[in-house]
Predict the structure.
Amino acid sequence: MVRFFTEDIAFKFHRRRQISAWLKAVALNEKRRIGDVNIIFCSDAYLLDVNMKYLQHDYYTDIITFDYCEGSLLSGDLFISVDSVRDNAGHYGAASFDEELNRVMVHGVLHLIGYDDHSPEDQKTMREKENFYLARL
């Protein structure tokens, strides 16, 4: 089950059913199943605190994924900074905030599936997967 929460911000997410069904379809296409996936919308400051506290990284990011997967069952927490997503939508030329938010959410699920983005080659694969699934939303 995909569930949506907020921390430290007032943010209304109105596409819960659509996005939940889409992320389940992404998982199935990758031969996985959705277990408990929590998407937590928060501010830059909140996510920076999470990044420093749990990963010892002193920098801003748009998403942090905590993976609790077991076998083919996807479970985890996706902390998403609405501030960074909004900034990145303009910076990277996304058509809208929603498009960039969709990209970040599927990016987190792809991490749970096992895709990484540390090397340039991994980043290319991740971007191709994101684009593939965004086109199917």
